[in-house]
Amino acid sequence: MGSPPLFFQWSSKALPWLAIISIIVFSIGMVWGIFYSPTDYKQGDVYRIIYIHVPSAILGQSILMFMAICGFITVVWRVKISGMLIKSAASIGASFTLIALITGSIWGKPTWGTWWVWDARLTSTLILFFIYTAIIGLHSSLDDKTKADRAISILSLVGIAIIPIIKKSVDWWYTLHQPSTFTLSSAPSMAPDMYQPLLVCVLGFYLIFAFLLTMNLRAEIVFREKNKTWVSKQYLNRQKNDK
Amino acid sequence: MKSDIYNWFFLILKRDLLIAFRRSSTYITPLIFFLIVVSFFPLALSPDQDFLRSLAPGVIWIAALLSSLLAVETIFSEDFKDGTLDEFFVTNEPSFVLVFAKVLCHWLITGLPILLASAISSIILYLPASSFLPMICSLILGTFFMSLLGAMGAALSLGRSAILSSIIVLPFSIPTLLMGTAVVSSAINNQDYSGFLLIMGAMLAIGIPGLCLLTVEAILLNYE
Amino acid sequence: MINNLSAIIYMDGNGLYVWVCLLVLILILGINIYLPSRRLKKIYKENKTNGL
């Protein structure tokens, strides 16, 4: 599995199953949350955005942790596929963080009255997004992709080390400057009826991440090794299967 | 042997200081850039005294971040281009010491102009005199951390544009910014600011070994 | 809740926000599915035209 061609063979068979399972769990979670969970007494039905916002934010942070672990493996053991994993995961992590930012902002409009508020969570999500763009930008600027993978590993390691410091300092900064006119409430306190669909949604999002990661990794592997014979054999196999 | 490492360290330090002092632009430009950035705020916003006083900690710190970031661009590029960096890595001396010596030299060259510029800016932005010393202390710690981060960013984007290295480094410098402005703001309000200085010191304590090692790794990337 | 479909879509006037969020989610996930598969197919096509 550690070698790119083997992973590609394995993933060609596993991908349809992964897609089906992830879409099923994801849909169950979303339908349960958006349609069947009880109405919050404070925020009404708008709180249902939580089933999109919170899993995206959780995924955004977990993906950076995943990238840091892969980065460590890449730098220490020079494994090629873990380097490709970082690159494949980066755009997905940035997408989830962007979803968290946009949905957080949209959630803010009916509940707080403004499209954006510099509160601790949204601000640290914005900084997380900047870290993702830094990683993606660095990778795309380097032509030698193996070297780019290692550069990305270093950056993700620094990122994961500094994320707790950023969160703590942004939390502190926000409590210092919190407007005294109104306190912004975080997510509504959760009844079990609301909490269970959230857990299913988070699981669904993780499965979707695995699915998207596999797709990205397959494209990345074929791109890097496109001059090798196993890639053209793969294409001939596909043509045979298509016929 | 211990003395060998010290000899190596001072050799690199002396060499870089000498090269930097030969060109006066190395230590004048951070100063001027700082003052230009600081001047833009009253020009773009308002020259009102109370307004500028409320802005002063943030403006000084933003200017310090940008100046030290832009000044650190050339820390490795010239040695890389003319092959001296290869020589340094071919010897058996520890490369961590090389990076630390270069960062220290860079900080000595650009940190002092930035401190001078911040002193001038505190006057033109009407910063209360009581917060002058805390501001200098926080800037000393903060600019050193910025030099470390900037060196790593310069090593990662060796040969590429400065703006790429800015994108890499600036998100990671946010804790320094927050803590630094906290020091100055709490000094203005006569509150205790030592906690923030301790946090900045702790970041330096972890940052010096960690970032220097990662910078060595990043430079070695260019020699694959 | 599911009894009243119009209540769900309207959500006391805030329904637009929830549905726009869902739309954003589907859109961005869709882009993340579409782009790699297009990249894969493009490489296959390039290989074919290069006669590998």
Describe the secondary structure blueprint for this structure:
The complex is a heterotrimer of chains A (243), B (224) and C (52).
Chain A: H1 4-36, H2 50-77, H3 80-112, H4 120-141, H5 145-177, H6 192-224, H7 229-242
Chain B: H1 2-22, H2 25-44, H3 49-71, H4 77-81, H5 84-90, H6 95-124, H7 132-156, H8 162-169, H9 174-188, H10 194-221
Helix pairs in contact in B: 1-6, 2-3, 2-6, 3-6, 3-7, 3-9, 6-7, 6-10, 7-8, 7-9, 7-10, 9-10
Chain C: H1 5-10, H2 15-49
Mean pLDDT across all amino acids of chain B: 89
What is the element string of chain C, with H for helices and E for strands? Answer: HH
Largest sheet of chain B: none
DSSP strand tally of chain C: 0
Quaternary structure classification: heterotrimer
Whole-number tally of structural domains of chain B: 1
Q: CA-to-CA gap between the ends of chain C?
A: 59 Å
Distance between the termini of chain B: 29 Å
Low-confidence blocks of residues of chain C: none
Radius of gyration of chain B from CA coordinates: 18 Å
Report the uncertain regions of chain B: none
| Overall geometric form of chain C | rod-shaped
Bulk shape of chain B: elongated
Largest interface, counted by CB within 8 Å of the partner chain's CB? A-C, 41 and 29 residues
Put simply, the count of helices of chain B is 10
- H/E topology pattern of chain B: HHHHHHHHHH
Note down, in words, how this protein is organized:
The complex is a heterotrimer of chains A (243), B (224) and C (52). About 2% of the residues of chain A have low confidence. Chain A is an all-alpha fold. Chain A is flat and about 60 Å long. The longest helix of chain A has 33 residues. Chain A contains 7 helices and no strands. Chain B has one domain. In chain B, helix 7 packs antiparallel against helix 9. Chain C is built from 2 helices and no strands. Chain C starts with a helix and ends with a helix. Chains in contact: A-B, A-C.
Task: List the keywords.
heterotrimer, B: mainly alpha, 10 helices, C: 52 residues, mainly alpha, 2 helices, rod-shaped
